[in-house]
Amino acid sequence: MQAWHVHENGEPGEVMRLADVERPTPGDGQVLLKVRAANINFPDALMCRGHYQVRPPLPFTPGVEICGETEDGRRVLANPALPYGGLAEYTVADATAVLPAPEVLDDAEAAALHIGYQTGWFALHRRARLEAGETLLVHAAAGGVGSAAVQLGKAAGATVIGVVGGAGKAAVARELGCDVVVDRRTEDVVAAVKEATGGRGADVIYDPVGGEAYTQSTKVVAFEGRIVVVGFASGSIPSPALNHALVKNYSILGLHWGLYNTRNPKLVLRCHEQLTELAARGAIKPLVSERVPLVGAAGAVQRVADGVTTGRVVVVPGPAEGGAV
């Protein structure tokens, strides 16, 4: 079979190499899966660089999220067991963590449902307790993680403000359903959010960016608001001033979704059931901006690493499903 291998750490476009290898052999409690589609996540790029908290042994295959097919023909979602990632024709996964793929979503859309939407659901509902009628601000609203949070926020009955970088991404955010879109490249984010909220600010802020985005969040969070920190795509990890949180009466919440897989896996299953129901009634649908063949995976991971993509980029082994969309 063909699989992408990383033999040394560095930029994905430089260190990922397509190789002919043997199919992986499932270990105890694992299943072999044929990869139908593999969604690219920012952690794939970080693992290539050696900057992620999980560091699989070299060589490894990137790809932490797939829609796959079991040997008995079931269509499923899974997080591959590294070092056998999903950017390959076959992978392996823990049998207990395999979930049924929603029928209403095609392979590429299903591959993009799990991590981003689970992260958004846990952040907004489990951690921030978002309520209907509240205002949700989403940084990087046109990206893979951000677009999921926008859809989940709208499904929950929130007013959603999306912060993006560039006119193209602003158009995507509007199509996703953002009530207000702020282009950080041409607008003052703090002033725009305050104007949109009548000076009150946002009740919940979803931040996968860190850096300057986090600083802006502290200036526009409402009284008793909640800032949910889910990642640092900017590469800058902020050091919060806790006295500021005290005097403004807001909460700083962290979310490491992966911990739920080991600490409370029943919640992951419950979340998947709710996401499947939301997808079935059309309330959420992963935004797949590109569908690329396996041979194009290295370039696709690099584009995600560079932050130039919108929505999700999904690798489909064999010919691309209809090309880029």
Structural description of this entry:
With 325 residues, this protein is an alpha/beta fold. The protein folds into two domains: 2-113 and 286-316, Quinone Oxidoreductase, Chain A, domain 1; 121-258, NAD(P)-binding Rossmann-like Domain (Rossmann fold, 3-Layer(aba) Sandwich), CATH 3.40.50.720. The chain is built from twelve helices and 15 strands. The longest helix has 16 residues, at 265-280. It is globular and about 60 Å long. The protein starts with a strand and ends in a 9-residue tail after the last strand. Residues 319-325 have low confidence and may be disordered. It comes from Streptomyces acidicola.
Instruction: List the secondary-structure elements in sequence, H or E.
Output: EHEEHEEEEHHEHEHEHEHEHEHHEHE
Percent of residues in helical segments? Answer: 25-40%
CATH topology of the largest domain: Quinone Oxidoreductase, Chain A, domain 1
* Total of domains: 2
How many DSSP helices? 12
Beta-strand level of the residues, as a percent range? 15-25%
Structural class: alpha/beta
The fourth-level CATH homologous superfamily of the largest domain is: Medium-chain alcohol dehydrogenases, catalytic domain
Radius of gyration: 19 Å
The CATH class assignment of the largest domain is Alpha Beta
Could you name the ranges where pLDDT drops below 50 across 5 or more consecutive residues?
319-325
Main pleated sheet: 7 strands, mixed
Number of separate strands: 15
Distance between the termini: 27 Å
Shape: globular
CATH architecture of the largest domain: Alpha-Beta Complex
Average pLDDT over all residues: 95
